[in-house]
Amino acid sequence: MPEGSHRFQxxxxxxTVLSDGYYSYPASWFFPNADPAxxxxxxxxxxLPQDSVLSxxxxxxxxxxxxxxxxxxxxxxxxxxxxxxxxxxxMAGIRPxxxxxxxxxxxxxxxxxxxxxxxGRPAFPNARYVLSETEWExxxxxxxxxxxxxxxxxxxxxxxxxxxxxxxxxxHQIEPIDRETExxxxxxxxxxxxxxxxxxxxxxASEGHYLLNLGDAAVHPLxxxxxxxxxxxxxxxxxxxxxxxxxxxxxxxxxxxxxxFHFPFPSVGRVAVNNGGWLWTPGW
Length: 284
Ligand SMILES: [Zn+2]
Prior knowledge:
The chain is built from 8 helices and 14 strands.
């Protein structure tokens, strides 16, 4: 397989995780309420650096035989260390015009930036772009309140302006949904609010096999291990935790594999209940 991609089957449905790149964030943005000494011990026990999180961006290509679906589009050209999705799709033999459906888990720049090309046009010209109606309304409203995010104001500005810009370009191809919805046979979008108001998770289910894409319902395995540790990018942390619990319960009940956009590549694995949280074991 080409570097930065990993293919597996969910029953008859072909899935490929594609690396768009990565970005380095200050650890305090990812874990704003963690006790610094405990955080530093946890990072050390995972052999991770103390002050920063090198966070992967991982999109999901779904090939059902009838449909080609992309879940999230990466960051596009917004940083020097991301924007590889078009090249990864090319290596997988997929042209932009072949993609018939793009599901956007939410409208943060690292997920929606790759949905428009360098000329400011939709990057997947024939696709419908599925997004929660709540998400659309939140980012296109006259005023977008990001005051609850615990990241610097410059980051909030850039999140807001990128969402507006991308949604503006995509407006004629957006298909909003307002509840749990089967997007194509075997692929279901599930409301998973908290990170953003209209955040979605995506379930691929076929012949008793499951992959639940969490999107950004958790952005680091430590958010599963330590449920009280919040993510500074979550607009409503309590709601995000409720969502995380609901998704974990669902995954455990049906013995699902999970995927999370920002987890260590290839970003797939399983969870088990552990000490009031969930332990992440990578692998398919
Ligand atoms: Zn993200």
